[in-house]
Specification:
Oligomer: single chain
Distance between the termini: 27 Å
Radius of gyration: 16 Å
Largest sheet: 5 strands, antiparallel
CATH topology: Jelly Rolls
Number of strands: 12
CATH class: Mainly Beta
């Protein structure tokens, strides 16, 4: 359970989040919402680009319902100091991630060690939670089917760092603020 509003402390970038829902609670929210046919049906789908609507997440979290046309993905990114979770409501999503914690500042390019790549498939009704600085990309690899998913983050996303990858070399490309996606 999250702290009552009167005792919750505001989030300051660069400091660990105090209170708020845990990653497991965010996953529970994402799974329950993904199983709600009315919520999933409320999302307009576009055949060419991702669509999204903002949801009321638990305990002051940021939450989104996202539609994924066939063949779309996020590219490599992280959610900075936010922990999070996502669940597939319709279709199938693939997540590629790195089992490594990257430095949060002071670099533009890093060579990754062997064996840090992870991959998982999330069918409808399944999801996953993650902690701060989780680096991943999410893809709808289906050539014909839309996918829909629910995502939740706490604290609300202070930024998203975008990366490119060339073999074992990871490059920090740019940093987005909430004004870039809201």
């Amino acid at each position: 359970m999250s702290a009552p509003a009167s005792t919750a402390r505001p989030y300051t970038p660069g400091r660990p989040p105090a209170g708020g829902p845990t990653a497991a609670e965010l996953l529970d929210f994402a799974l329950r919402t993904a199983a709600d046919p009315a919520a999933v049906a409320s999302l307009p789908l576009d055949p060419e680009g991702r669509t999204w609507i903002r949801l009321d997440g638990p305990g002051g979290s940021e939450a989104w319902l996202i539609g994924w046309p066939p063949g779309t993905g996020t590219g490599w990114h992280d959610h900075a100091e936010s922990r999070g979770a996502f669940a597939t409501a319709r279709g199938r999503l693939t997540e590629h991630s790195l089992a490594v914690r990257l430095p949060s500042e002071g670099w533009r390019s890093l060579e990754l060690a062997p064996d840090v790549d992870r991959s998982r498939t999330l069918d409808a009704g399944t999801g996953r939670a993650f902690l701060e600085h989780h680096l991943h990309e999410v893809l709808n690899e289906s050539p014909t089917e839309h996918a829909v998913s629910v995502h939740a983050y706490y604290p609300p996303l202070p930024l998203i760092r975008r990366y490119s990858r060339s073999g074992p070399v990871l490059h920090l490309e740019h940093v987005e603020s909430p004004a870039d996606w809201q």
